[in-house]
Design a protein that fits this description.
The complex is a heterodimer.
Chain A: H1 9-33, H2 41-63, H3 74-90, H4 95-115
Chain B: H1 2-25, H2 30-40, H3 43-54, H4 59-70, H5 73-84, H6 92-99, H7 104-113, H8 119-147, H9 153-174, H10 178-197, H11 202-223
Helix pairs in contact in B: 1-8, 1-9, 2-8, 3-4, 5-7, 7-9, 10-11
Classes of the chains: A mainly alpha, B mainly alpha.
């Protein structure tokens, strides 16, 4: 933001470059999903693409995080994520168990490293 | 249902509490931060837009950058809508409104949970879930903007770690057939690779390449070569 911008400029940016640029994909998704049946082969394919994409978001968040998580070593972040997922699978696929296990490893490891 | 809603809501809130700090440091006002949260409703796009506004980027290039960060919402919406729709009854504009709530957290939660509901109940459930999730996170972002100056790095780091682990567990829980699980593994591996090779286009490529490989491999094992 430069000083020369009028006061409404950030708002215009949020509506055009933010809201429209994001929601247009959601609307296109609704229109393209048209009469697709959820058990069709095309649908299996689209779900694969969407799932792979979200999985890509996950590994980026762990390996290349923004902000404070950066200061934790990458091995610790990986260990926390893997432990969390293993605990999730081991204890009847309860999400909360996985999340808590990962946090224990992350914070515990962080404290140990800081102390050591 | 209350317990089901609280876990994704808390985790997403934690992520937005982290964002509120970034927005404040970037010089966005409280109303701009909240407008962005409510209108855009997809954290990666919000972060890109924040950078674009503070970096003095033009509207066209900022719009393109945000659009690129949001393409992923299209296949996600396409995958979810057939689950929410009642054939011949659901009006399209209802789905258009519901689609605004499609973002990774709500999507993962809905893919995992709506299948247990009768078809007629799914769209109302998703609308109610999406609206309350957005409303709750919206309020908490505002509170965090006002109250949080800066968190100790370990607390902030712990908050940021919640999101990927939550996604990891619920994405696995949401997968119904082998193609979903194969796609998840492919995406986990390819995500960082494409991030190195083609930053900016990485998520799109991860989805297309990983999803196609997973689909073809599992289709082969299901049906053979034909």
């Amino acid at each position: 933001m430069t000083m020369a911008d009028p006061w409404w400029w950030p708002y215009a940016m949020i509506v055009v470059a933010g809201w429209l640029a994001t929601d247009v994909w959601r609307w296109l998704g609704v229109l393209f999903s048209g009469r697709l049946r959820e058990d069709s082969e095309l649908m299996v394919f689209i779900r694969s693409v969407a799932t792979a994409l979200v999985a890509g978001v996950i590994s980026k968040l762990v390996l290349f995080p923004a902000g404070a998580l950066e200061t934790a070593p990458v091995a610790l972040r990986l260990a926390a994520a893997v432990t969390g997922f293993a605990a999730f699978l081991a204890f009847g696929q309860r999400v909360i168990v996985g999340v808590l296990a990962a946090e224990v490893v992350l914070i515990g490891g962080w404290l140990l490293l800081g102390a050591g | 249902m209350r317990s089901a809603v609280s876990i994704p809501a808390l985790i997403l809130t934690a992520a937005f509490v982290g964002y509120a700090g970034l927005a404040r440091e970037s010089g966005l006002t409280l109303d701009q931060t909240l407008l962005m949260t409510g209108l855009v409703w997809a954290l990666p796009s919000i972060v890109v837009l924040t950078g674009a506004i503070t970096g003095g980027m033009g509207m066209i290039s900022a719009g393109l950058a945000v659009a690129l960060a949001s393409v992923r919402l299209m296949p996600m919406t396409m995958a979810l809508m057939p689950l929410l729709r009642v054939e011949g009854k659901t009006k399209r504009w209802h789905l258009l409104i519901a689609s605004h709530f499609v973002a990774v957290t709500a999507w993962v939660f809905a893919m995992r949970n709506v299948q247990d509901l009768p078809r007629e109940a799914r769209l109302p459930f998703f609308l109610g879930f999406g609206a309350s999730l957005t409303g709750f996170v919206f309020c908490m972002t505002g509170i965090a903007y006002v109250m949080v100056g800066s968190l100790p790095p370990m607390v902030a780091g712990g908050l940021f770690m919640l999101t990927p682990v939550y996604f990891l567990c619920s994405l696995w829980g949401a997968s119904r057939i082998s193609a979903d699980k194969a796609a998840m593994l492919a995406g986990l591996v390819l995500g960082p690779v494409f991030f190195r090779l083609a930053p900016g286009l990485d998520l799109l490529l991860t989805g297309l390449v990983g999803g196609t490989l997973a689909y073809l491999a599992t289709r082969l094992s299901r049906r053979g070569w034909r």
